[in-house]
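User: Can you help me understand a structure? I only have the sequence.
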Amino acid sequence: MNLWRSLVGKLWITIICLVACVLITLGLFLLPYIDTNFANSGDIKRLFTYTSLVGFSMTTFFGLFLLTRITQPMQKLIRAADAIRKGEYGTRVSVEASDEIGELANTFNHMAAELEDNIRSLNQEKEHLSSVLRSMSDGVITFDNSGKVILTNPPGHRISELWRSIDWDYESADNQRERTLEVPQPLDELFNMTLSGSGDCSTLVHVKKDVWSVIMTPLYSDNDIRGAVAVMRDVTEEVRLEKMRTDFVANVSHEIRTPLSMMQGYSEALLDGMATSPEESRELIQVIHDESLRMGRIVKDLLVLARMEAGHADIAMSIVDVDELLERIYRKFLVRSKDYNLNLYYEKLSDDLDIQTGDEDKLEQVMTNLLDNAFRHTPTSKSVYIVAERVQGEHTSYLQIQVKDEGVGIPKEDIPFIFERFYKADKARVRGESAGTGLGLSIVMSIVEAHHGSIKVTSELGEGTNFIVRIPVEYRK
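Assistant: Let's start by predicting it. Here is the structure, written out as tokens:
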């Protein structure tokens, strides 16, 4: 630092100027008086000169003393404060003094230590908050009141980028102007409601086939809203499961209500004595019996599905001779095919039809349900085929079983839903409508998936349906 610009330098110059003014004033008035009244005026003038030199010397010494005791410690404090300004919060001042400068240095060091602790605590809280945000599976996006994103976690960033990549349809120029904001289009309305002072807002946002639960909360600064934070969760699966639950309850109620109504009606007819002959009574009792059997089948199938979906399928994996299994099923359904006036064929396209990991009873249930379904949808004099072969997949071998019929077929719009519970494509085309529960194909799907296999269906209206079941010969995890 320039000495003349420092406080001590200015003070030193001021004192020298004051001393010089005093000496000059005294000299102007005293020198004539000395020359007039003293004989040894030269000695007095020399004494006056020596006194002036000593005064200036003492002033200089006093300035250097102030420079050492005040200016240098102040310069250390200035450098330390500048270092802290640059982020070097560990900077301290070493001043050994017991005066005000020393107290100032100690206070400065204490302030710096407190500031370092506060900054460290803030950084730790920031890292903690950042870790919490990163570990959240929900998306979090924070906006300022102008719609600019100021903070986001990785899921929130991915959601925001995904929504911005969608080509939204804008209705007006105002909406197009609003798109200059960083708020994704699905959050526009919620963001505006939050900024308008509506408090916490929540809603379900539908984006393509996904459903998101969004909660937006305002951010306050001195009772003024300075932005909003949005928390987004993908609830697509939850909404789908809830819809499945409600549909399931409605379907179960519908399926059970029908036989109950018939049983109630026919039993009331018997109680009222409407049957005028033993034959009519037997017919009414037979209907009640058939409907009770139907209810029993529905309840039994529901219990099977519930156990399988809960992981209690009781599947005992072992080596299964599928050829022997299909031969037995073929012989059993051959009798029924004659009753329905249908042709049933079994074709074996490979010699080895054994699988290493399968449950024979469950696989028999799969074939029974598929053949029963084929028989009920195939008109008289048509054919049903069972085709079995071993095929090679990309990584393993599969046993492929096809159940083909020449029935009425399934509409293309119904094919994606035929494995859902109680779904029936068209009851009008089903032989023995009361025999089906709408759960057979759902059970088939669950059993096949429990064997780590797959099932698909191809169908053409009026030409028939083909169910293709693939089960790995030996499943490896």
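Now, to help you interpret it: The CA atoms of residues 300 and 453 lie 24 Å apart. Confidence is low (pLDDT under 50) at residues 171-180, 427-435. Let me know which part you'd like to focus on.
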